[in-house]
Amino acid sequence: MNHQLLTVLFVFTIATGAVDSEQWLEPKYTWNVAEGKPTMQSSNYYGYNKGFSNLAVDGNPDDDWYHGSCTHTRNDVRAWWMVDLQATYTIYSVKVVNCRNSAPSRLSNFKIEVSNNMVNWILCHHQTGGLSSAWELYYCQASVSGRYVRIQLQGQNYLTLCEVEVNVHNA
């Protein structure tokens, strides 16, 4: 199919209302509200002077552990990482950058959850398998609002994250 025909089909589909343009189109503007915000994690991996929780929101998406921009917990049961957004937002999506050289398969079977009080958590997304690429963008299943965003493994393993973005959009 050539480009002109695809363009005509797209315009026709939108013009005739075959696709609800409000549901189909991405929001015009999204922004990351997590960068530079306070973080914490279930533990810090000992033996290295790196791997601290704040590295997931440093604005550096480098997925190489040896470059010093990734978090790392110990081999915890239900290891977790959390960011305090310092205000309540309706979360649109969460981008997670995995570590490519620190057993990338470790980041599997995890939940992304949102809370206002760090006690009651609302599910944004449950990833049952591993990531299919170096990073994934997870859309919350419904309008989820909160101040805290947590990524938590469902089994026992190390949790290593190289960047986390919490994206919101204008109403």
Describe it for me?
- This is F5/8 type C domain-containing protein.
- It comes from Owenia fusiformis.
- One of its GO terms (molecular function) is metal ion binding.
- Belongs to the fucolectin family.
- Pfam families: F5_F8_type_C_2.
- The protein is mostly beta strands.
- It has a single domain, classed as Galactose-binding domain-like (Jelly Rolls, Sandwich), CATH 2.60.120.
- 11% of the residues lie in helices and 42% in strands.
- The chain contains two helices and nine strands; from the N terminus they run ααβββββββββ.
- The strands form two sheets. Strands 1, 2, 4, 5, 6, 7 and 9 form a seven-stranded antiparallel sheet that branches. A two-stranded antiparallel sheet has the order 3-8.
- A hairpin with a 6-residue loop joins strand 5 (108-115) and strand 6.
- Residues 1-25 have low confidence and may be disordered.
Specify the CATH homologous superfamily. Galactose-binding domain-like
Say what the CATH topology is: Jelly Rolls
Number of strands: 9
CATH secondary-structure class: Mainly Beta
Provide the low-confidence segments as ranges: 1-25
- Rg over C-alpha atoms, rounded to the nearest angstrom: 18 Å
Q: Which structural class fits the helix and strand makeup?
A: mainly beta
Main pleated-sheet profile: 7 strands, antiparallel
User: How many individual domains?
Assistant: 1
From the N-terminal CA to the C-terminal CA, the straight-line distance is: 36 Å
Shape: globular
Mean pLDDT: 85
Task: Quickly give the CATH architecture.
Answer: Sandwich
The helix tally amounts to 2
Strand content: 35-45%
The helix/strand order is HHEEEEEEEEE
The percent of residues in helical segments reads 10-25%
